[in-house]
Specification:
Order of helices and strands: HEEEHEEHHEEHHHHHHEEEEEHEHH
Structural class: alpha+beta
Strand content: 15-25%
Shape: elongated
Helix content: 25-40%
Distance between the termini: 139 Å
Largest sheet: 5 strands, antiparallel
CATH topology of the largest domain: Transferase(Phosphotransferase), domain 1
CATH class of the largest domain: Mainly Alpha
Number of domains: 2
């Protein structure tokens, strides 16, 4: 930063610590006019000349990069040759991780409504795209590196932050396996295979964004193994289906997420913006089929005279924003004739009214009368047989 900026930020007052981590310390700072900033201090090894050079190079670019979905970086410097100091805009709401997973700070329950998850994904994609256009790889995209800032209408908007000191994977700080965060705070969840191998590229950020979108849409991660085991596995198991983890999602969302999660960077979308556009194409498609996973024997009988589909999944075309099932706080009791849903989901009224359990056959009194009456043909046949027997008996008696 220039001398004027250095003098201004040197006068900031420390208010309170925001976070204390093994790799960084973050403090809330305040100026005389009430302006607030977050000060992040990151320690680097004494001889890590390349890391300090990378920090200053990125700092110079970010200080002149202004985008509505990038957190502003007004100042920073290397001090005492062992600390990288940066000031960023302060977000009182905290990060996206705080909003969906942090105890005591949670704002939303996962999974988010699909269109809300899509909006956040698009905003994050635009912020990352701005970095890519400036020649920077973020390298550490995760829930905790997305800030939530309220706009003039009170809508929470996503701003990407912390794109300064990532070289490969967080400077290699976590490769030893020490102090690895758990649950959705685990940065290994968002690590692309090529980045794990020490060869990060622009497409690595798309992989991280696809994992992030999967989490927002389903409340789960796409892996069937632990994140590190997944990265180290030679025969990689397939990812989970988002439309199975969250049954209100369109079927097409699986193909989009799986392409963003391709292990080969060249197999992914050409850019993070293209990935977000493809996701919008399936989540925003008003004619996209909804999917609810059920057993074949559980497919209910349609009230209309339409045979049930002979498949393991029920595909029902409904217009957005009217899904087959919605997430509720308490869930709902099973509906006769409809398959059971995952916990905390309930069928929408239109689905309940469109289906019913198979009816038992109704037998009327008239039908029972017809069924109890002996057919006339049987009576005639029996009468004729009796007459023939009587005639045969009479002939035999006359001969004797």
């Amino acid at each position: 930063m220039d001398e004027l900026a250095a003098a201004q930020f040197a006068k900031l007052r420390a208010v309170r610590p925001i976070a204390e981590r093994a790799d960084a310390a973050i403090w809330l700072m305040e100026g005389a006019a009430g302006a607030q900033f977050a000060r992040k201090t990151m320690s680097v090894p004494l001889f890590a000349v390349r890391s300090r050079g990378l920090f200053m190079q990125r700092l110079h670019v970010l200080a002149h990069l202004h985008h509505p979905h990038l957190a502003s970086v007004p100042a920073g410097r290397v001090q005492k040759r062992r600390e990288c100091l940066v000031y960023t805009e302060y977000a009182p709401r905290g990060s996206l991780y705080d909003a969906v997973a942090a105890p005591g700070k949670r704002l939303w329950a996962l999974p988010l409504p699909p269109l809300d998850a899509l909006r956040l994904t698009q905003e994050i994609a635009e912020g990352v795209q701005a970095l890519h256009s400036a020649g920077l790889i973020h390298g550490g995209l995760k829930l905790g590196n997305v800030l939530l800032v309220a706009d003039a209408d009170g809508q929470w908007r996503a701003k990407v932050t912390d794109a300064l000191l990532h070289e490969g994977f967080a400077g290699g700080a976590l490769r030893g396996g020490s102090a690895r965060p758990t649950d959705l705070a685990d940065p290994w969840l968002f690590l692309a295979p090529e980045q794990y191998a020490g060869r990060p590229e622009l497409a690595s950020d798309q992989y991280a964004l696809a994992v992030l979108a999967f989490v927002l849409l389903t409340g789960e991660t796409p892996y069937t193994l632990d994140a590190v085991a997944h990265l180290q596995a030679r025969d990689v198991p397939p990812y989970q289906k988002a439309s199975v983890a969250n049954p209100i999602l369109p079927l097409g969302v699986d193909a989009v997420l799986w392409r963003g999660l391709s292990r080969a960077p060249k197999a992914r979308y050409p850019s993070v913006r293209a990935f977000a556009a493809a996701l919008a194409g399936v989540l925003g498609d008003r004619d996209a089929p909804r999917a609810v996973s059920i057993a074949p024997s559980s497919i209910p009988i349609l009230r209309a005279a339409v045979p049930p589909p002979p498949v393991a999944q029920l595909h029902e075309e409904m217009h957005m924003p009217q899904p087959l099932a919605v997430r509720t706080e308490t869930g709902s009791l099973p509906v006769p004739g409809l398959p059971d849903l995952p916990a905390n989901y309930s069928w929408v009224p239109d689905v309940v009214s469109a289906y019913r359990a198979p009816d038992a056959p109704v037998i009327s009194a008239k039908t029972m009368t017809r069924r109890s009456a002996v057919p006339a043909g049987v009576i005639i046949a029996v009468t004729t047989l009796l007459l023939l027997l009587a005639l045969l008996l009479a002939v035999m008696l006359l001969h004797h």
